[in-house]
């Protein structure tokens, strides 16, 4: 009789364990398919920065700070943005952000400053470091022989590796995932850069964004851009996911 009772207890405990493991797996799946409020703010801030929509950007800055983005994280997003939408948009974004931070201070709101970028201690050249980071992002070794536009204008290859992927991407205020989210948001908002968007959507998958999160990215950025740009982004993403699935 005791043996039967013991067996029943074991079965019940096993069932309970499986139930909670299933719930945990479902929660992890949901977490991997949804963007949180900070990530959504990264998208809207980046989009409005790229388009120079300063009134909307002020609202997005306030929402981002309220969602928990630090001052230094937002500053880093704006610094990162200049590589994709130029100094004029980036600097106007920084000037607008300064206004928002000062206005919030006046209202007694104390926002978290956040961490500063760590110093880079590496004996490798910036070109080598940038090349390594690009290999991490792409998941593939970079060829030693230049081709395409890099061969046509070798200086751009040097600037990309030494400055974009070393000077900027190497800074640890933002993660590679966050930087790619900023990047695809800016490229989408600019428009007419489908090959670059396709490339960075692929990199976004490589650094950990899920197909569901990238689909939500399109939904989040859509109200901030034109219908044509939104349709283009959805089309490019569909092609990227189709190509990735067939591999």
From TrEMBL:
A Pfam family found in this protein is CMD
Q: Which InterPro entries does the record cross-reference, listed alphabetically?
A: 4CMD/NDH-1_regulator, AhpD-like, CMD-like
Note the superkingdom of the native organism: Bacteria
* PANTHER family, sorted: 4-CARBOXYMUCONOLACTONE DECARBOXYLASE FAMILY PROTEIN, CARBOXYMUCONOLACTONE DECARBOXYLASE-LIKE DOMAIN-CONTAINING PROTEIN
Residue ranges occupied by any Carboxymuconolactone decarboxylase-like domain in the UniProt entry: 30-93, 154-239
What name does this protein carry?
Carboxymuconolactone decarboxylase family protein
Cited Gene3D superfamilies = AhpD-like
Record the organism. Chryseobacterium kimseyorum
């Amino acid at each position: 009789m005791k043996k039967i009772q013991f067996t029943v207890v074991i079965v019940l405990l096993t069932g309970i364990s499986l139930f909670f493991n299933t719930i945990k797996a479902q929660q992890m799946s949901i977490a991997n398919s949804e963007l949180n409020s900070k990530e959504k703010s990264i998208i809207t801030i980046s989009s409005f920065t790229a388009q120079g929509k300063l009134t909307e950007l002020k609202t997005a800055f306030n929402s981002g700070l309220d969602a928990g983005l630090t001052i230094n994280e937002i500053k880093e997003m704006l610094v990162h943005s200049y590589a994709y939408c130029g100094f004029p948009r980036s600097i106007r974004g920084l000037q607008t952000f300064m206004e928002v931070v000062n206005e919030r201070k006046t209202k007694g709101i104390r926002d978290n400053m956040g961490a500063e970028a760590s110093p880079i201690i590496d004996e490798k050249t910036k070109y080598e470091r940038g090349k390594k980071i690009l290999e991490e992002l792409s998941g593939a070794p970079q060829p030693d022989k230049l081709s395409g536009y890099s061969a046509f204008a070798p200086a751009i290859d040097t600037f990309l590796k030494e400055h974009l992927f070393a000077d900027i991407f190497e800074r640890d205020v933002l993660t590679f995932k966050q930087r790619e989210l900023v990047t695809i948001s800016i490229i989408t908002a600019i428009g007419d850069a489908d090959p670059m968007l396709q490339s960075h959507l692929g990199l976004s998958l490589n650094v950990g964004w899920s197909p569901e999160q990238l689909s939500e990215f399109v939904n989040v950025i859509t109200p901030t851009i034109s219908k044509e740009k939104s349709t283009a982004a959805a089309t490019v993403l569909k092609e990227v996911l189709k190509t990735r699935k067939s591999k």
